[in-house]
């Protein structure tokens, strides 16, 4: 048997053999190639390119910042030590010769110093009192372009709010037409000096970078304006309109690797856009391998899924379908026979055998439970009967000594009716009308015993007298009330109310009230916890028995609650289904 089991376990009908072969042939090689080539090689190359471009971006931005810082220091020194700036702060007509002489000296100085700062387009000085601007004359700028630059510089310097915002601070971005400029202004009283740099001029060194056909190196303002790209024609401008980029952060969007470095001297940044296809264009073998892996996966995985579905998933689904039906109580279903693996065949056979055994066992247990419940119900009903017999017989005996024959006759009649009812309590259910009649008979006997010390009132429902209820349902609670509530000190009254209600399902509500002292707290606590009720004086066997009987008959559809009424006395409320 052991040899046969091993043969079945490792033949081509074995699920273990099929899983091992399937995983080895299809999954393992594909995963190994995909993980090794795609994740390792591409990630390493991409990270190295990103790091390299980040370093290049930082290097070029540092070079630009150094140039701008040199010009900033030059202007600060000029503002501090150049005496020819003072006459420009006064109206020209006050001392025309001195004013013109100062302008000539400043022009010569700017022309001489310009050779040291040839990355600057213009150096300027502006007299606020005379609305007069003085610049150098770079040979690379045509006279017409120079006039245009002087014009927009004059308009900018005449705007007091602009000068207050940017004066004596960092380089700021200014747009004139389609051109962007970096401008710096130093204020000396009512005289401004400064310099301008065309943004595209700063990009000349970066033209030597190999960024590929679609790669870009761009200057971007803090407002994400493209300073060195024609926004009307450049297709990459849309990449910068979505969100602001963080300083020196690599943002990998769908197609571009983006590296950005913010300037320390001005309100702009250097941005490098590098297409991912450019990054990987030097890895043709890797790209071909990745394409083959993807293509192979598209072809192989559906085939593997069909194979897995036929050999494993379909048999499991058949078993699960039958298991769900069995879970819902349908023990007639069995797993049908199909050509399946050895293990699934064994599982199906064992499962079908187990369901058959469960069905037989469930029937046997159910029958035993019915017999047990019937015996327990009968036992509980018989426990209630002897409670007041002794007191009733003792009352008749005393009346016989007094020769009160009418009383004896009436009491005997009630006792006969009571005993006749008790002899038929082997029934599970009786009509509500019979239960009320029996309770009235019991109350008359008790009223004859206690005379004026006990009264009662029964409010019967307007309809539903033929409703079936457990025998002794009301009488048991009435008997319990008389046993524990009646004393010789004060008269006691019992009120019984019955009413039918319609909610999700119809039910009968029975309320029994008395005017006694109410339930002790320990009795209420034990009852709510589901324990047998035992007070300091005696056991409340009747209440516990009827609660147990309702549990056996109605499961969770019936309930009993005990409370102490706010007006004094105990109150018992019973809910039973009206069916």
From TrEMBL:
<protein>
    <submittedName>
        <fullName>HAMP domain-containing protein</fullName>
    </submittedName>
</protein>
<dbReference type="InterPro" id="IPR003594">
    <property type="entry name" value="HATPase_dom"/>
</dbReference>
<dbReference type="Pfam" id="PF02518">
    <property type="entry name" value="HATPase_c"/>
</dbReference>
<keyword id="KW-1003">Cell membrane</keyword>
<dbReference type="InterPro" id="IPR036890">
    <property type="entry name" value="HATPase_C_sf"/>
</dbReference>
<dbReference type="InterPro" id="IPR010559">
    <property type="entry name" value="Sig_transdc_His_kin_internal"/>
</dbReference>
<dbReference type="Pfam" id="PF00672">
    <property type="entry name" value="HAMP"/>
</dbReference>
<dbReference type="Pfam" id="PF06580">
    <property type="entry name" value="His_kinase"/>
</dbReference>
<keyword id="KW-0418">Kinase</keyword>
<feature type="transmembrane region" description="Helical">
    <location>
        <begin position="291"/>
        <end position="316"/>
    </location>
</feature>
<feature type="domain" description="HAMP">
    <location>
        <begin position="310"/>
        <end position="363"/>
    </location>
</feature>
<keyword id="KW-0812">Transmembrane</keyword>
<keyword id="KW-0597">Phosphoprotein</keyword>
<dbReference type="InterPro" id="IPR050640">
    <property type="entry name" value="Bact_2-comp_sensor_kinase"/>
</dbReference>
<dbReference type="GO" id="GO:0000155">
    <property type="term" value="F:phosphorelay sensor kinase activity"/>
</dbReference>
<dbReference type="InterPro" id="IPR003660">
    <property type="entry name" value="HAMP_dom"/>
</dbReference>
<keyword id="KW-1133">Transmembrane helix</keyword>
<keyword id="KW-0808">Transferase</keyword>
<dbReference type="GO" id="GO:0005886">
    <property type="term" value="C:plasma membrane"/>
</dbReference>
<keyword id="KW-0472">Membrane</keyword>
<feature type="transmembrane region" description="Helical">
    <location>
        <begin position="20"/>
        <end position="42"/>
    </location>
</feature>
